[in-house]
Design a protein that fits this description.
The structure holds 2 protein chains of 2 kinds.
Chain A lengths: L3 E4 L2 E4 L5 E7 L4 E9 L6 E7 L5 E2 L8 E7 L2 E6 L8 E9 L7 E3 L3 E5 L1
Parallel strand pairs in A: 2-11
Antiparallel strand pairs in A: 1-3, 3-8, 4-5, 4-9, 5-6, 7-8, 9-10, 9-11
Chain B lengths: L2 E3 L3 E5 L4 E8 L6 E6 L6 E6 L3 E5 L2 E6 L4 E6 L8 E8 L5 E3 L3 E6 L1
Parallel strand pairs in B: 2-11
Antiparallel strand pairs in B: 1-3, 3-8, 4-5, 4-9, 6-7, 7-8, 9-10, 9-11
Classes of the chains: A mainly beta, B mainly beta.
Amino acid sequence: GAVVSQHPSWVICKSGTSVKIECRSLDFQATTMFWYRQFPKQSLMLMATSNEGSKATYEQGVEKDKFLINHASLTLSTLTVTSAHPEDSSFYICSARDAREDHNEQFFGPGTRLTVL
Amino acid sequence: GQNIDQPTEMTATEGAIVQINCTYQTSGFNGLFWYQQHAGEAPTFLSYNVLDGLEEKGRFSSFLSRSKGYSYLLLKELQMKDSASYLCAVLDSNYQLIWGAGTKLIIKP
């Protein structure tokens, strides 16, 4: 099956710093990647949809200046949490859709656990 | 608005069968997914239904009725490792995944 990797798996940073999370599709080309955030005991919350070569589409309530998304190639999307604060501490998960697949399945990365002190 | 409903939590016994229901109201329908998510991990794909009926895959089966806006995930011969959250998600007319809040399944010996 299709594999999506995320890096780093976990990160601890000080308040005010920026953190970059990478999402890679390893064995397929992903024209669309998705970024989710999940707080403990809650469901996935879609933050933004990232299309290769164009600007990301952010969900209502998600600050695009704070969560910078870049989808520079068909296999890589990055999420940068700028000036992180403790309330940004969460589990960030990316997924990628293989455009060749008929049923539009999303393949998930393993997630990145961010802790902001 | 768009809405996915599934029970918050269910408990079942090892070796038994459990059915997790999901009802949905979405703008358009391009398929329904079930994902399994263990605590602290990302979701993993279990099944996809776009036509009415039952899809069987080993110990897991998924059913869909589009006219009723209803699906269920059936887990047989439950094992302790099946303790996880089960997420129902619908692909709407914009090919956006609409997620349910998940059902936490607790398996007891």
